[in-house]
Here is the input.
Amino acid sequence: MPRTRASQGTYPRVKELRETMSEGGIPDSVPIVMAGGVWRLDEWEHWIDNPELGQIAFQFGTRPLLTQESPIPPGWKERLMTLEEGDVLLHRFSPTGFYSSAVRTPFLRNLEARSERQIAFTKESIGDHAFELDVGIGTKKNYWVTKGDLQHAREWHAQGFTRAMKTPDDTLVFVTPEEEKIIRRDQAECMGCLSQCAFSSWADNEESTGRLADPRSFCIQKTLQDIAHGGHVDDNLMFAGHSAFRFKSDPFYSNGFVPTVKQLVDRILTGA
Here is the structure.
């Protein structure tokens, strides 16, 4: 079995990490955990019992999603079996501020498109920002943009994205009136599930963070609750690792086979 690109590209860094650990007196018996991109062990065979790396452990995150005991709903499991390479996006739309991987459902694609409909502004005419924005804002606003961005804004407005929402980065994103209503409602109904949420101005001390809520993000509590309780995968955030496309081609899952956890572990132990 050929080595995967992940195992090839990561090896020098893990080797260097082990050397640094050894210099610090950490024995080789302390494992380095490989997480992300691990599908089958025979693709990592040259890592196992390798004196340069010491003890290595492997974390399987994506494959256990597609098991009979997995608590994710049937629609999520069914979609996993249909993914193509590239259908999973590493994104930073999460209100946590961290990167995460998710399937590019219409929900995620909408967030991508929303951020693409974005322009920078100044509150007075400065340099190239010499053109006053005349669409997507109230009459009392005073935003100055570049000539090119003014043209973009007018084009988006003509397409129905008639509402400009301010972000914490002094930019404006253009959304439809319906999208703006949903964003405002979700922000107003914030339950405080995160101590510092980028999507709202909530803080764990029940006071405002003093930061502007970011319309480029989303209410993570709302979407995770919905998809976990049978909400349509197209309308929600659907987590999966970048190797999820392999469900479709791996013969272990042929004909829609969904293994038990025991069957999966037994399969993994064979190296496949």
